[in-house]
Amino acid sequence: MNKKITLSLALLSFIFSANAQDSVNDEIDNAIKYGRYDVAKKELYKLVRSQPTQGKHFYRLGLIHLNENNQDSASYYFKQGLRGVKNVDINNLGLGKIGLLTQKDKEAKSKFNAATLNIGPKDYQTYLDIAHAYTYAPKPDFDLALEFVNKALFLELEAPEPHIARGDIYFAEKQFVDARRVYYETSKRFPNSHLPKMKLADVLRAGNEFEDAIKVYDTIVSKDPTYVDVYKQLALTHADYARFKDDKALLQPGVENYFKYHGMLGESIDLDNELAAYLIKNKDYKALGDLVRTKWYTRGDNFFMYRYRAIADFQNGKFLDAKESINKYFDVQDKKDQILPIDYLYKGLAELEASRKEDGTFNEAVYKKSIDEMAKAVKENPKLGVALHELGMDLFKDEHFEQAYFVFDLASKDEKSPYYVYDMFYKGNALYMASEKPMFNDQLQKAKDNLDSSLRKTPTFEAYLISARVNRNLNTPTSLAKMEKDYEGFIDLLTQKGFANDSAFKDALIEAYTMIGNYNQTVNKAKATSSFQKVLRLDSSNEYARKQVQNAK
What we know:
Blueprint: H1 2-33, H2 37-50, H3 55-67, H4 71-82, H5 90-101, H6 105-115, H7 124-135, H8 142-155, H9 160-172, H10 176-189, H11 195-206, H12 210-223, H13 229-245, H14 252-264, H15 269-281, H16 285-295, H17 304-315, H18 319-332, H19 341-354, H20 364-380, H21 384-397, H22 401-411, H23 420-433, H24 443-457, H25 461-474, H26 477-496, H27 506-520, H28 525-538, H29 543-552
Helix pairs in contact: 1-2, 2-3, 3-4, 3-5, 4-5, 5-6, 5-7, 7-8, 7-9, 8-9, 9-10, 9-11, 10-11, 11-12, 12-13, 13-14, 14-15, 15-16, 16-17, 17-18, 18-19, 19-20, 20-22, 21-22, 22-23, 23-24, 23-25, 24-25, 25-26, 26-27, 27-28, 28-29
């Protein structure tokens, strides 16, 4: 009797242990699927110590590092996994993926063959993973990908994933009609699966059919509001739609969906960073500030939170707070190689803003030192010039003219930049727009010099117009003569480009002819009268121009 009880307890203990192990493995797989790599790593590091012969643990660690673009670390774990006893072949799958990414095709093929040598009778997923690797390799091989999809279909015809993989190949080849057909057929064959419907919406989104894609995603939400994946895709689609329409209001539902997706998955530093990256990319700095405040106490060990708080504070005009946060980020970040050139930029900009004198102007020496230090970051990363231009444009559109000037000043250090002419124009324009509370004693002169540089490189009607306004405000005999030439350049270039009759430029043309008329009243009365008559052609109700024409008779 005692032996039976002991046996029963041992068996019960074994069952509970197995169930607990399955639960941990499910949690790890779920964490990897949704990018909660910090959570998955924590559990996997425990498992590789307690179960060093289980090859699958090493594979999953390698897969995480591969997804994080750490190929050397991934390779290390895959090779460690091959030294195990159980489930070792799957590590060849990981090494095969690295082979394709490093364009060692023969090595990849050899590893994939090894991974499938002892494949189980229902293990179609390994074939799909290989098909996916060939589909999205630096040099895709769609024919080989299809071969592996067909092998998966041979093993399992009654699951949606192999059928979807066929559509994925068409999708990757940009054969959207065929991809849509496959996904549609699969959704009919497997009406209870959300996957084919999600893929169908993905194709619609890729074709800029955003409203239709959102409708499909919303249908999935209505049927299964607990289906996590759909909320992220809704967030990404709304963001694409907002950029496509250049309408920030369209982004708000996307932000709400991303927060919902984020909240359904549980705590994760990696997920926090992913959401922050989404908000930065889509320039929702208010929501970024809300995220940082919400997560600060629970995720204070996340170094990147200092960075995100600095960006949010800077973009929201809290420059002293931004300076404090970015300096803390530099202090606590032990891996200095993770500090990006854009971080140095924010550090410099925040310090620059915090160094203003009481009258709002800058000490020229402090300004020059800060700009020189930030310019180093630009030189280290040529791509930063494009990012600077985009950041400057965002700041300018939001009427943060002073900050826009700093950014365009940095961007314009590279005369070979494709944006150089526009960077110089916006640099001068920003100085002009901020001239009521000048940062520099000779602010309008600086604006004029920058606009002149832009016009010398490539004349644009925008630069002519702002240069004319700057010269008008300088109000010297020399600048007023230059003002007339600038307004004439604006009119001529506008006419050449066929915009002279565009209603969008009506007010600017009236301004130009009026100012030319005013300038010539004492210099060339006939030209003055002619200019005011042109004003009346544009606006017959303009009383000022009418009086000037009448007075000339």
